[in-house]
Amino acid sequence: MTFWEHLDELRKVLFRSVILFIILLAVIFLNKSFVFEKIIFAPASSDFILFRLLKNFSEPFSLELINIELSSQFFTHISVSATLAFILSVPFILHQLWTFIKPGLYEKERRAVNVSFGFAAILFFAGVLVGYYFVFPLTVRFLGTYQVSELVENQISLKSYISMFTRLILIMGLVFEMPALVLILSRIGVLSKRVMKKYRKHAFVALVIIAAVITPSGDAFTLFIVSAPLYLLYEFSVLICRDLDKQS
Q1: What sign for the dihedral angle of Cα 141, 147, 150, 151?
Q2: pLDDT digits over 68-112, tens only?
Q3: 3-class DSSP state for residue 66?
Q4: Which tens digit of pLDDT belongs to each residue from 50-63?
Q5: What letter does residue 45 receive in the DSSP assignment?
Q6: DSSP letters of 150-204?
């Protein structure tokens, strides 16, 4: 294929992805009450599933959100709808990207990447779910109820809450792609179990630094609950390499 033919194929991939994104955006936008009341604002109350499971270890709480900007609620509606539409579009987008790059790979590279693309979609959703059901609720519970004094009440703005929500959810989805990247590198012979074990301590420090960079807030609590899943992902990546080494 010529350069322009490749460019035309890329245009088709982008067009199909954008069409799906717009459809999902419209569906989510039109279901405002369900999306916000049942999903977005659910972690802001002790009725959330995680807190019900931990009811013996935590006191009841409920955050009251306020809005201080005239247009904030409307643009929040749009931004949240776009974020959720993108999350739901990820498997289709990855599939489209795979169909675009597949013809340009060697057979060995094609076998390695073929499994990894499907694996990447699963990992992305796993990261989003961990962020939604674990990282974000604990962050909100800690930061939203923390007080330096009883004289100072917390008034959480809608903008602050949504910003924390979208960033943490997307960040967790992206960082969960680490095993998929390791799977590709190990299958094409770039990375091995021995190397990952050798540099485990270095990786731990690097992951803590990465967690510090990507966390929306700079507090130690959020840093810890983001770092823990990252390190578990690293250990899972080591297991993947180990299995591949045995097969080789």
Answers
A1: negative
A2: 898 999 999 999 999 999 999 988 888 888 887 777 777 766 776
A3: strand
A4: 888 887 666 788 88
A5: B
A6: TTS---EEHHHHHHHHHHHHHHHHHHTTHHHHHHHHHHTTS--HHHHHHTHHHHH
Residue linked to tokens 């499971």? 53
Distance in angstroms (rounded) separating the CA atoms of residues 224 and 172:
13
Query: How do 156-157 and 65-66 pair as beta strands?
Result: parallel
pTM > 0.85: yes or no: no
List, in sequence order, every residue forming a beta bridge with 157; answer none if it has no partner.
66
Separation CA 229–CA 223 (nearest Å): 11
Q: Which residue in 62, 27, 32 sits closest to 161, CA to CA?
A: 62
First to last CA, the chain: 35
Of residues 46, 51, 48, 47, the one with CA closest to residue 61: 46
Rg, Å, the chain Cα set: 21
> 10 Cβ partners below 8 Å, 6+ apart?
100
